[in-house]
Amino acid sequence: MTEDQAIAALHKLAKRWPPSLWLFSACGTLCVMRFGENGEKVWSGTGVDQAALVDVIDIPNDGGDW
């Protein structure tokens, strides 16, 4: 797969992404998370609630900010 194809695939996925899921990046781990019952991102006392973790995707990433 080329870089352009990978980017196009992500754009295509974004159009079909289920509204019940969101992505969270932390320490280079890309996590698929489930929103809470009221559509909120579920947090525990120290960060995201691990119970809301659905899967981990092996794509290099950075959880930092611009």
Identify low-pLDDT runs: none
Mean pLDDT: 92
Counted by DSSP, the helix tally is 1
Which percent range describes the beta-strand content?
25-35%
Provide the number of structural domains. 1
- How far apart are the termini? 27 Å
Helical fraction equals 10-25%
Which strands sit side by side, in order, in the main sheet?
1-2-3
For the report, how would you describe the main beta sheet? 3 strands, antiparallel
Alpha-beta content class: alpha+beta
Cα radius of gyration in angstroms? 13 Å
Oligomer: single chain
Strands, count: 3
The rough form would be described as globular
List the helices and strands in order. Answer: HEEE
Explain this structure:
With 66 residues, the protein is of the alpha+beta class. The chain has one helix spanning 3-16, and strands spanning 21-26, 29-34, 53-57. The chain has one domain. A three-stranded antiparallel beta sheet has the order 1-2-3, with no helix packed on it. Strand 1 (21-26) and strand 2 (29-34) form a beta hairpin. The chain is globular, with a radius of gyration of 13 Å. The model has no long low-confidence stretch (mean pLDDT 92).
